[in-house]
Amino acid sequence: MDRFWSAPPVTRTLVAAMFVESALVHGGLTSAMHIVYDTSRLLKFLPELWRLLTPFLLTGPDFSFVFDLYLTYTYASGLELNSPRFGQPGDFFTYVAFVATVIWLTAGILLQGWIFTSALMMAFMYTYAQDNRGKKAHFIVVQIPVELLPWAMLLLTLIMNGIGGALQQGMGIIAAHLYDFLTRLYPTFQGGRNYIQTPAVIKRFFGADRSSFAHKAYGSSFRSGQSVPQQQSGGWTSGFSSGWSGRGAGRRLGGD
Questions:
Q1: Is 149 exposed, middle or buried (CB count within 10 Å of its CB: 0-12, 13-18, 19+)?
Q2: Which of 86, 98, 152, 189 has the smallest number of CB atoms closer than 10 Å to its CB?
Q3: Does the structure show a pLDDT above 60 at 219?
Q4: According to the UniProt entry, which residue ranges have a biased composition of type Low complexity (predicted)?
């Protein structure tokens, strides 16, 4: 439980929801037909709006139940904690909402899919691979360049579940690449504007209006607040204090 509560909030909530929903379905306590995506049930009177969320939370049965939870926790927490692209409160939540929307439009509306969990996991894996280019990753019993990991997983899905399963899962790569293009590639190399910004209300919900100190794999950062905690020298942080910060009001030389 200590390890669970120490996990980042979005990943912790996502994995817990996946565990509960999948345990209910695979344990026979509810039917998968009550939670899979179904456009007709969304458009009827008294729409079943939960079907916009539950298709992203159902794992596979048997061994896939543990495997899917493990992959989701590994790559989602790796992004939420360590990715430099999610440096502000709520950024990772905005990323998840964006890729989930693209997956819903492609895998759900376009391909008429029912379950989007594997596509969401693939989006996490693709973004994680882009952030860690040049490193090695374990795939089954071998080590491969991490940027090849999503494609190796997609090939495995093609072999095990056929072209339909691979197409559904591949929508996660499209969603994650579109996010990368709109937030990093296009603004950086084409001089365009990044339109995918975290709304202020989401930033406040995740603590942007409270002082917080976050440890990252690439350093430490202070988040907004009324005061910045004083740190002893001996480590790199994103907040620096100057020797002039404690001085009083200045006086103009030569004045009265």
A1: buried
A2: 189
A3: no
A4: 224-244
Distance CA 51, CA 109 (A): 13
Partners of 213 in the β-ladder? 222
What gap in Å lies between CA 94 and CA 195, rounded to an integer?
12
Q: What percent of the chain has pLDDT over 70?
A: 82
Does 223 map to a domain? no
3-class SS of residue 123:
helix
Q: Which helix (H) or strand (E) holds 243?
A: none
Q: Residue holding tokens 């591949």?
A: 170
pTM of the model: 0.80
Which are the contacts of 91, defined by CB distance < 8 A and separation ≥ 6?
Answer: 85, 198
Write 148-154 long-range contacts (CB < 8 A, 24+): 149/125, 150/122, 150/125, 150/126, 153/122, 153/125, 154/122
Total domain count, the chain: 1
3-class SS of residue 213:
strand
The DSSP code for 208 is T
Cβ distance 78 to 70 under 8 Å?
no
Residue 164 inside a domain? The answer is yes
Domain for residue 145, yes or no? yes
Tell whether 228 is covered by a domain: no
Tokens of 181: 């293009």
β-pairing, 142-145 vs 212-216, is unpaired
Q: Match 């964006």 to its residue by tokens.
A: 98
HSE-up of residue 16 (Cα within 13 Å, Cβ side): 11
Nearest to 38 by CA among 50, 25, 24: 50
Reference 225, options 241, 239, 209, 214; nearest CA is: 209
- pLDDT one-digit tens code per residue, 126-167: 999 999 999 998 888 889 999 999 999 999 999 999 999 999
